[in-house]
């Protein structure tokens, strides 16, 4: 006897069921099966083209009922719309003046939030993040486009068409379908789709998948005609907009301005201006308005950041004076070799074409003789490239004020003449400041000759080598420039690898900014109190970089920008939100009353989670293998310190300092964060060499680093040493450090002069 649920009975029932299903499938008409196949291709496989073919075949099959053929035709029309909506520019008229489109804002924003650590399910998301379902429900728009086709010169409402594809936002479409009959008047259908007039100003048509609105019925008819291939002209196929439309992709936003339809209006306006203002007419004439063709731009979100491009296109053989005056020779590989590797930022452009041969007058030995004409020739003929760069470090200025390690670098056609010109200019400035000596002090840096000119309290360094000349008040910047001349240039800098790789013919200027390195510079000059507040935010910028380029050809001017290495702000956002929810205090788990058994279990969990100095967890394993980063070691230090393992924590300090040995800001920040923390004095002995190293790297010229060192010394009981650290300069910045040391002076029974 078979029991209910026995394996034999289950297998028997399954076999009968499969046989029945198979018989049913065979009994179905072939075209009825095609409906299911088409539905699967459309909704599951995403093969709209294959589904459309099956729907069309079913719509023509006379063996099906009239209702089934109508249903197949309806599905085919919806598929055609879906396919056409992939490229909304193909649905608007060719004579569109201004076109703007948006693509899948929900998916695009989700990609951005993922990089920022604010999307649930992302690798680095914090405990508080946005759900992808929320994005899909509120920003699940498939696409939208606005096309302006007519401009009223009297200032009236422009004409055009709007195309909206709600995608999966069924609630939005439902809301529109509900509101239209209530707020609009039904009109004659357009293309078999319900149409309404809204306040007599616009027509709205509810197509199968999208919604079309326009000031004119004919424009909606044109959109539907392009969907089904009944109308040929479209903006996407405009013969003069090929380069502008090439910017389009699956980006968040795109716009295109077509100047051709408005040229007659522009010419009429210019004629009216010329009749009243002859000077204005002359200026407008040099802009050659008739040569304007198009402008375009895009905003994109990729897996590695944000990007934006803007371009302007003119006719061949145009006479636009402003366009031509802005054009510069293109930058190239030689330009990047001017800039040292590891810079915080740099900007470079080209002034003149590179060419061989000297310029100007020479003496009997062939040496350049500087004449007054050379000053003009230097700028308008000799200098090829100009670059400004800054290292991620700060030196002390003549009065102890912070001074960026920056330099001006140039490639030149005639390096001997440039060298002679700058020697003359700097030598005269040196002699005029009181010494009377116009000759430079020569020294060696990296085995190369560098000249120093002392102008009042500022030293300017001059480095000339092969085809380059570099001038800087910073010895560090000159040393880096010497390194670039030896091959250690930004061309091999990972932070700017993409910029270097994509700079090609027609690029006339480049800009590169490492936000992380600039943040490092900012930390150097910030007061300790402010630094403690913003340091966590600045640290997030470690891998962020901003780059921009200008491209200028005979007929096109474009500007491009990229922001990559976006910071993971998820954990910090969580902390801020938790703090706000907790009345502005640091977030803590709510201490609600719990049963005794639950409290006991919680204590066991806390004990299990407590840091163990000798635990072989992942972080300690990384430490022992020598692969631990500064952040990992700092995390271990904090765990040990929080657990009261001060001896073990102190043992971590030399390892952390070893990783930061050449990072003055990193050394100072770590030393200050520890010594200024609760019970920080217990680590003073281990922190002393850390604070000393930070000041050694900056030649004892940074007041804030000296302040940190003084705190360490006083924690060790070295009051006199702390007082002796006070700098001699009494400027505004020096006073900050001296006020911090005033309490040390009081410990000795003395007063510190702050005037």
Number of domains: 4
Poorly predicted runs are 1-32, 585-619, 728-737, 750-755
In what range is the share of β-strand residues? 15-25%
Query: Which class best fits the helix and strand makeup?
Result: alpha+beta
Number of strands: 22
Q: Which term fits the overall shape? A: flat
- Kindly provide the radius of gyration, computed on alpha-carbon positions and rounded to a whole number of angstroms: 36 Å
Number of helices: 29
For the biggest sheet, the summary is: 20 strands, antiparallel
The overall average pLDDT, rounded, is 79
N-end to C-end Cα span: 108 Å
Kindly state the percentage of residues in helix.
Answer: 40-55%
Task: Give the structure's gist in a few sentences.
With 755 residues, the chain is of the alpha+beta class. It contains 29 helices and 22 strands. It is flat and about 100 Å long.
Structural account:
The chain has a 20-stranded antiparallel sheet, with helices on both faces. A two-stranded antiparallel sheet has the order 12-13. With 755 residues, the chain is an alpha+beta fold. Helices cover 45% and strands 21% of the residues. Residues 1-32, 585-619, 728-737 and 750-755 have low confidence and may be disordered. It has 4 domains: 26-84, no CATH class; 88-310, no CATH class; 319-564, no CATH class; 615-747, Serine Threonine Protein Phosphatase 5, Tetratricopeptide repeat, CATH 1.25.40.10. A hairpin with a 2-residue loop joins strand 9 and strand 10 (305-314).
């Amino acid at each position: 006897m078979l029991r209910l649920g026995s394996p034999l009975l289950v297998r028997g029932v399954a076999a009968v069921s499969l046989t029945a299903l198979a018989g049913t499938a065979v009994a179905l008409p072939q075209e009825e099966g095609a409906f299911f196949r088409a539905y699967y291709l459309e909704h599951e496989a995403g093969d709209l083209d294959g589904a459309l073919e099956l729907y069309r075949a079913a719509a023509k099959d006379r063996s099906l009922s009239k209702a089934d053929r109508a249903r197949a035709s309806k599905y085919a029309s919806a598929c055609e719309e879906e396919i056409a909506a992939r490229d909304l520019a193909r649905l608007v008229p060719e004579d569109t003046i201004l076109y703007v489109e948006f693509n899948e804002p929900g998916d695009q924003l989700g990609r951005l939030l993922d990089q920022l650590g604010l999307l649930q399910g992302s690798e680095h998301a914090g405990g508080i993040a946005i759900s992808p379902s929320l994005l899909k429900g509120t920003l699940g728009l498939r696409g939208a486009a606005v096309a302006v086709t007519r401009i009223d010169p009297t200032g009236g409402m422009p004409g055009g068409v709007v195309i909206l594809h709600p995608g999966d936002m069924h609630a939005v479409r439902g809301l529109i379908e509900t509101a239209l009959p209530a707020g609009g008047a039904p009109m004659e259908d357009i293309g078999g789709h319900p149409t309404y007039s809204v306040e007599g100003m616009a027509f709205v048509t509810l197509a199968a998948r999208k919604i079309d609105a326009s000031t004119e019925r004919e424009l909606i008819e044109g959109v539907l005609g392009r969907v089904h291939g009944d109308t040929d002209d479209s903006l996407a196929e405009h013969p003069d907009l090929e380069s502008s439309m090439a910017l389009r992709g699956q980006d968040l936003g795109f716009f295109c301005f077509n100047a051709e339809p408005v040229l007659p209006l522009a010419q009429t306006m210019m004629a009216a201006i010329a009749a009243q203002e002859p000077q204005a007419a002359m200026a407008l004439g040099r802009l050659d308005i008739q040569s304007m063709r198009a402008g375009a731009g895009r905003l994109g979100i990729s897996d590695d950041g944000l990007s934006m491009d803007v371009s302007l296109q003119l006719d061949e053989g145009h006479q636009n004076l402003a366009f031509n005056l802005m054009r510069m020779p293109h930058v190239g590989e030689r330009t990047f070799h001017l800039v040292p590797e590891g810079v915080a930022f740099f900007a470079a452009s080209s002034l003149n074409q590179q060419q061989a041969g000297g310029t100007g007058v020479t003496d009997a030995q062939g040496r350049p003789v500087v004449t007054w004409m050379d000053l003009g020739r230097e700028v308008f003929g000799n200098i090829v490239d100009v670059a400004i760069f800054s290292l991620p470090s700060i030196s002390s200025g003549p009065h102890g004020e912070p001074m960026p390690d920056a330099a001006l670098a140039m490639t030149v056609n005639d390096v001997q003449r440039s060298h002679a010109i700058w020697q003359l200019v700097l030598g005269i400035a040196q002699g005029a400041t009181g010494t009377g000596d116009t000759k430079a002090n020569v020294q060696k840096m990296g085995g190369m000759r560098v000249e120093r000119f002392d102008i009042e309290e500022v030293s300017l360094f001059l480095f000339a080598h092969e085809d380059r000349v570099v001038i800087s008040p910073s010895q560090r910047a000159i040393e880096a420039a010497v390194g670039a001349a030896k091959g250690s240039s930004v061309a091999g800098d990972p932070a700017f690898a993409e910029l270097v790789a994509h700079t090609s013919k027609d690029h006339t200027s480049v800009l590169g900014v490492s936000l992380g390195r600039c943040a490092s510079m900012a930390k150097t000059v910030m007061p300790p109190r402010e630094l403690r507040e913003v340091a966590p935010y600045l640290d997030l910028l470690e891998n962020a970089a901003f780059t921009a380029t200008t491209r200028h050809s005979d007929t096109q001017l474009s500007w491009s920008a990229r922001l990559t290495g976006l910071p993971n702000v998820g954990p910090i956002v969580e902390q801020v939100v938790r703090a706000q929810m907790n009345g502005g205090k640091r977030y803590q788990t709510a201490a609600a009353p719990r049963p005794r058994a639950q409290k006991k279990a919680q204590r066991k969990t806390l004990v299990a989670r407590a840091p163990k100095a000798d635990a072989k967890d992942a972080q300690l394993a990384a430490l022992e293998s020598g692969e631990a980063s500064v952040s990992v070691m700092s995390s271990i230090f904090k765990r040990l310190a929080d657990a009261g393992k001060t001896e073990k924590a102190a043992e971590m300090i030399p390892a952390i300092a070893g990783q930061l040995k050449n990072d003055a800001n990193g050394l100072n920040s770590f030393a200050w964060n520890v010594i200024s923390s609760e019970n920080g004095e217990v680590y003073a002995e281990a922190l002393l060499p850390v604070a000393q190293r930070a000041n050694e790297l900056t030649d004892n010229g940074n007041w804030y680093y000296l302040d940190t060192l003084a705190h360490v010394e006083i924690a060790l009981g070295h009051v006199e040493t702390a007082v002796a650290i006070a700098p001699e300069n009494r400027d505004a910045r020096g006073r900050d450090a001296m006020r911090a040391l005033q309490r040390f002076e009081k410990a000795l029974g003395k007063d510190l002069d702050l005037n």
